[in-house]
Structure formats: structure tokens, C-alpha cells
Amino acid sequence: MPRTRAVIFDLDGCLVDSEPLSLEAIAVEMRNLGIHDASAREVGERFLGVAMPVIADYVSERLGRPVPADFAQRVEDRLLASYATKLAKIAGAGALLWGLQGQGTAMAIATGGSLRRMAATLELAGLAQCFADTACSAEEVANGKPAPDLFVLALERLGLKPGECLVLEDSPHGIRGAAAAGIPAIGFVGGGHLDGKRDQHAAVLRDAGAIAVFTELSQVAAFIQERAQEATN
Known about the structure:
- This protein is of the alpha/beta class.
- The chain has 10 helices and 6 strands, in the order E-H-H-H-H-H-E-H-E-H-E-H-E-H-E-H.
- It has 2 domains: 6-17 and 87-232, HAD superfamily/HAD-like (Rossmann fold, 3-Layer(aba) Sandwich); 19-86, DNA polymerase, domain 1.
- Helix 1 packs across helix 2, helix 4 runs parallel beside helix 6 and helix 5 (93-102) runs parallel beside helix 10.
- It starts with 5 loop residues before the first strand and ends with a helix.
- The mean pLDDT is 94.
């Protein structure tokens, strides 16, 4: 087994507990357009980890007409306004990242969010310094998850090969995207958006190709450490 030289993180739902805020922001804007039964649960079940253009296409289908040109902007403005008082890191995120840094393990972000959202999230969560030159947004590639493009970009910025990296994801789209790029992926189901359905979602991630699934970031840290020890034996 090659040594894990870097970990590529999905951001929302893996390092910051932002998915409940994001899903609700999308649902609110859908209701504002007249889709009165839109809910955060519906959006999460269909589009967790998917870039906004795909969601906008679905909203257009529900409406029977094109979405307003500023739909994504409205969602993002609403979301970032909520971040000021409601954004929180996933428990153990800081310890995991600082620990990886201390071990000399590189790190990258591969998020379906926009560059603006990614930058604001990392800054407000106090994590920007961990990903100074390796934060990758779906805005920078032709195709978002589950295509491999975003992970390929992360590999380029890390200067590493797929087998030297590990991906942490909370969505099946991300797991599949990592696999398409040749990178082994582990699943995470500790985010608040998965309350009440962790076991069900863990099965979904395993079916998508996750090599392991965890509910705590401390477990993720232990898994990475075990892989490092196995690689040196």
C-alpha cells in the first residue's frame, strides 16, 4: 500500500457543518419562486454534493420555465448571511487538520461550492491557512462531481498521483468522482444534515465505492494513521 501523502477534503458536511444551512437556503429560494412544497430534505436527498448548475436545472424543470439568472446568487447571498452567526466546524476538524499538518501530510479542498463560498467558508471557519494554494472549487473545472475533474485539479495542485492521496466525502457523487480520478475515498456521515439517517447514508456511500465510512473525525484521523503505519511495514 503506497503511503498517503495527502488528504483531499470535501468542505461542506466534512469539515464545516454547513449542509443544513445550504439545503435550507436552496429550499427557501425555491419556495420564493413558487415551488411551495420545496424542502431542505428533498434537496439533500437529490443533490447532496452536486454543483449549483445541476440544481438550477432541476428547479427549472419543477417551475416549467428557466430559473431567474440570479438564482444561484440569491441562494449564495442567503447562505453566506447565515454563516455569520450559524457556521460551525465539524467536531474534531481542527484536531484532524493540525494533526495532519504536524505529520507532514498535505491537504486540499475539492468542493462543489463556488469560489466565493469556498473562500468565505474557509475564512469564517478559521481553516484558510490549511489550504492556501490547494483549495479547489467546481467553478474552476468543466464538470463537477461525480465527474473526476475537480479531483484531478486537486492532484495537480498537490503535485501528487492518485494512489498517494485519500479523499474524505459525505456524498455519493463525491465518492464516485474520487473513484473516477483513481483516488480511494472514505465516507463521512457525521454532519448535522444526516441526523436520523446516518446508517442509511453510510450504506449509500459504501455502495458508491467508499472503502470505509465514519461518524467522527477522530475515527478518520485514526484510519489515516493506521494506513500510514501499514505503508511503512
